[in-house]
From TrEMBL, chain B:
Keyword check for Glycoprotein: no
Keyword Transmembrane: yes
Classification via Pfam families: TgpA_N (PF11992), Transglut_core (PF01841)
Domain Transglutaminase-like: 485-560
Protein name (record): Transglutaminase-like domain-containing protein
Keywords recorded for this protein, A-Z: Membrane, Transmembrane, Transmembrane helix
Lineage of source species: Bacteria, Bacillati, Actinomycetota, Actinomycetes, Micrococcales
Residues spanning the membrane: 40-61, 73-94, 127-146, 153-170, 176-194, 224-243, 617-639
SMART domains the record matches: TGc
Source organism superkingdom: Bacteria
InterPro entries: Bact_TGase-like, Papain-like_cys_pep_sf, TgpA_N, Transglutaminase-like
Amino acid sequence: MSEAGAATMTGMPDPGIDEVGARAAAIVENVETVISGKRDAVVAALTVLLAEGHLLIEDVPGVGKTMLARSLARSVDLTVSRIQFTPDLLPSDVTGVSVFDQSSRSFTFKPGPVFANLVIGDEINRASPKTQSALLECMEEHQVTADGVTHRLGRPFVVVATQNPVEMEGTYPLPEAQRDRFMARISMGYPAQADELAMLSTRETASPIELVDPVVGLEELQGMIRTVSRVFTSAPVKEYAVELARATRDDRQLRLGASPRATLQLVRAAKAHAAMHGRDFVLPDDIDALAVPVLAHRLVPTSRALGSHDHDSGPLIDAVVRRIVADTPVPIGSARRD
Amino acid sequence: MRRDRAPLSRLQSVALSGSAFLLLVSAVMALGPLLAGAGWWWLCAATAAAVLFGGAGLRAIRVPASLVPVGELGVLLLVLTLFFGGASSFLLLIPTADTFGLFGELLGGAQRTIQQQSVPAVVVPPLAFALALGTGLLAVAVDLAVHTLRLPALAAAPAMVPILVPGFLIEDGAEVGTLVLAAAAFLLLLRVDVRVRRRAALAQHDDDEVRITAPQRMPIGSTLLPTVGLAAAGLVAASLLTASTPSVSTSLLLGTGGQGALFARGVSPFLDLGRDLRRPDAVPAFSYVARDGDRPYFRLLTIDRFDGEVWGPGERRIDGDNAVAEFPTPTGLGDEVARSQHPIDVTVQQLRTTWLPLPYPVASVEGLDGSWFWDRGSLAVRSADSDTSGQQYRATMLEIEPTAEQLRAAGDRIPESIQEFTALPEDVPASIRELAGELGARGGTAYDRAVAIQEYLRGADFSYSVEAPVEEGYDGGGLDVIAEFLEQREGYCVHFASTMAVLARELGIPSRISVGYTAGTPTTKRVENVSVVQVDSQDLHAWPELYFQGVGWVPFEPTPGRGTVPDYSRPGASETAPAPERVPGTPAPTPGARPDLDPERQLSGGRTSAATNDPAVWPLVALALVVLLLLPAAVRSWVRRVRVRRIRRGDRGADAAWREAMATASDLGFPAGADDALTPREAAEALLDELGGVDEGARRALHALRDSVERARYGPPGTAAPASEEALVELVAALRAVASPVARWRARLLPASLLDTARAGRRAAARA
């Protein structure tokens, strides 16, 4: 499966924007048969997938983080691998290792679990920083280098990492620089009462994940991704994204603002968001919808602003981002073109 | 532009109103140099307080923000009724139709008093009414800026009005201290607003996070538009009001012209008087009933300054203490001179002037409408806020009956205060000097010389003519005219009067000229067995008055064939000559026996019409009000036409269609349309929420408009579809169908969308 997805062109034309919307809706619906009542999380995850970013799911154990990642992977017929991060996990356990083949009397590279379209990194903050950074390098470079040989990863390559809230025992919180590599962070939250009840009855006999069938093939997904990358972003919307990022850097409650990479990923995620709604151009509304998931996990509050929040800065940062969005003027845009 | 707008607590609202109140009353203080006294300021302050705190009270009981200004106007009406409504109101507070009539009269009076008074003006009731009304309207405007628009900086605009006014009227403008005070109050208002905003923003988030509110970003365009709009509306209103103001008449005696305006142009009142005398048809001026049979001259005004060309009145402004209920003792009148009081009832007919026709001197005047004051020097009576039309009043004449002996006893003594009435220019023509020398050489006291002048002018050499001076080109009262008149020896009252006045001054006798009416003609009509005497425009007259110490100003009659020669001025009059007996009900003998025998009756020409522009003003005012009322609708309809044209032309049509749709929604009272901080998508969602159930067609139309404006604004170049006018029409129809009839009328007459750019910022609420 090393070259899975790397074979790109098969002569199939890229889907139109409407078809992207329709397929995205089908995927969301399919995933929702497993994860009910978490539409926002599902949509965010798919958005990240279509934008070829990486997703960080942060929540307490047992709310379905892994289930979401796996059902998404199954719905689009991707190759999936799963890494359970533990404190003793080594970098080579993630990327793969060169072993000496007695028969050929040479070193051959044995790919690690990272060689898949969708890599689920469970409880990434339990691993040592060294192992974390091994994964994060792959995420950024889309390749693995071992013994001087570079091995390209497949396309799409999406890491869905889950993370327990940082105050849990035995964890190494991701440093700011590494959090920045994730396109978006979402949290699942506890299910509503009705959803939890329904879950009890559906899971009585079998895991519903087994019942999820792919609705979109790998090649179709690649086509969707290419279509997404062609979604038009007008100058006012780009300016708007930049304005938002700049506002986070100037904000008095924030110690660390959004990086230029954050701006880039915000716009890419907005393209995917637009395409999922069958639109071939980005609206300020797309940017607004993604501002919190895309920006919040990269920002660091001042200790003064953090104040009584102890270590859990999440709600504070979310509120700051929402305020910035509310305070930043929406560009009316030029109507010169009509 | 997105702004959080948190509702204010009552305390915060009152704090804002309080600082707005301080701003307004300190700004109103700037009118101080223009007005006499301080009572008016308390009135303005009370009105402003009632309106502003009334508004705060309305907000406290959760009256919708858009209705608060209306409520404030109601409060203003109640306050005005309380202060000015008097008996016409119901329970002191409730205005009736009569109250509005009264208000109309007060406004008319205010307009006149502004024309007639010079600074500092006496605050007569109409002026007080105008001040209270103006302050109240300014208070509504300030409140609109501070509370409704939440743009306290805009409150500077209404506050500037009273500050700017003095600059137009007096050289110095408003006092510096007042300006500093007003500026401080303005800063206080801004400060309070900032604090209130911060508190409100903090209170809005119920968690205990420390929040720092970002400074409001305010694109200049959003405040510019309403500001310019308000300023334009104000200018239009001002110019309309100016247009409806009656123009200053050129005629002194039949017009409404104020003193200042008239004489500032250097026009002699004599010329106007002559013009009136030459009119063919006599216009009834007024009639009077004198129970004691008096036939006095009725003076309008006295002119006592002579610069060689023009006679004019002294520069005396109205003094608010000089009410006509009581007059002082006339200047120079000594105790030994016989005097008696006779009531005369006057009914003004077509005379319209700010000067009151009265005998000289009078003891009191009763029954006048409006505010009338006597002039300290001449005791002439003029009004600050009304005019003579329709007046009915009782003047108690103080009849002075000096004897020739008393006049002779005056000698040549002239007190210091009267010296100015002997002033003559340097360049008195030689012929006048010589004549004065001749007459003075006859000897005797000042009184004897005065009698000699009168005798000379009434001599057979002089004849009366209202036409000759005009034909010969020497009309008026200047020195050259007098010299020419003394050559030609033909003229009318103004020539005789001014010649005698100049000759008297040349001989050292203080003199002045009174302008008014002769005694008039008795009619057959009788009131309580007393003949009604009719005075008309043909009775217009001018006569000299000379000053004698111990007696005061006494009239002379140098004009041959006009008026009555006073007994004391007849040659040979002695202290033994009794004053003629006056029997009640019988007219005094009138030499010249007019009208039948007066030659000038046949000579006069021209046509007169009393200037009664009162009825003409009210339609204009009504028209101005209607125009003002329709102005917002007109502006809105113009904006709509511009947008529809853009849609049809395809000139940013999607944008125009969307803006028009949102503006219509805003007009009809759906706040989603008012908030231009919302993206089209958010606005459409919010509007659908506000509409509740709406049919599928309207929903589709709204979405079509939304999609096309989104594509136009943010879509790839060249993909924008033409805007659909049909969708706009369908959506507008659906919106109007949902709105209440009241909302539909309000949308037409007071389209809220005109103010929307200043009111943006409901985004946070819409997203919540």
